[in-house]
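Example 3.2
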Amino acid sequence: MGANLRGANLRGQHLTDANLTYQDLTGADLTGATLTRAILDMAILTGANLTGANLTGANLASTNLDQAEWSDRTRWPTPAWTERMRVASDRLPDGRLRVRPEGLSDTAPVPI
């Protein structure tokens, strides 16, 4: 079982290569965090703020991203993930994006 990091302020933290498998990061502030190559398998990021976060090369297998907010500066693991996130999100009035509540599956088809 993972740690409860609900609402944690991880703003700007360097979490490169961190193993966050099964971690509950509901509502966590990860604004500008570096999560390069982080393992977020089965993590809960519901409502997390990923604005400007760097998730390049991160493992997001089965990660719950419902209602997560992000921006055009957010770097997803791959270009396919970036496209998947754009399709699964709505733009907010302030320009950021929010993943729709129906969620996002890592097995969902990626538009080409």
